[in-house]
Design brief:
about 80 residues
Length: about 80
């Protein structure tokens, strides 16, 4: 996967995240819809973290003279356990 494809994926995920956050305002009184949106927002946050992680790996490998194609997506538990 290229940097451009990863960036495109990030853009699509962010657009969906914005759509869900906007929709939350309209669904204030619908608990089931809010719960579903919040669950999806949680999934999106994890997927965004994973995408950014791969993109950072690719950039680091390239910067160190390595092959960016050696970067690989890490599992959600690993990515979500990083210290900020």
């Amino acid at each position: 996967m290229t940097d451009e494809r990863i960036a495109d994926r990030i853009e699509r995920l962010v657009a969906e995240e914005h759509e869900l956050r906007t929709r939350e305002q309209a669904e204030r009184n619908d608990d089931d819809a809010l719960d579903a949106d919040r669950a999806r927002l949680s999934e999106l946050a994890i997927e965004l973290d994973r995408c950014w992680d791969v993109l950072r790996q690719r950039r680091a490998l390239r910067g160190a003279g390595g092959d960016p194609d050696d970067a690989s997506a890490r599992d959600a538990n690993t990515v979500e356990s990083y210290l900020q």
